[in-house]
Amino acid sequence: TAANVVVLRVKVAYTNGKNPESFVIVSDAPGLVASGGKVTPIVWTKADRADTFHLYTLDGDPMLLAPGQTWVELVPLSGAKTTAVISFDGVVQ
Known about the structure:
about 90 residues, mainly beta, 6 strands, about 0% helix, about 45% strand, disordered C terminus
């Protein structure tokens, strides 16, 4: 079970054609956090590949997650629907 579910809408920018092993996650898109029985709309940022995900409420306050496990789902804004395992640094595993 997860204490938090984070859904991030992402724009995928391919750096080597359509090779899924060389894409970067482009931030500043909407998202949702389900935690504590509530769903909260959020915005998020990720400055670069080495940066972590930063989650904010629509008011600009940091989005606080409940202690425990967090499930993160990355949903492309457009393009083909494919599945990949992505580490938190944005690298496909």
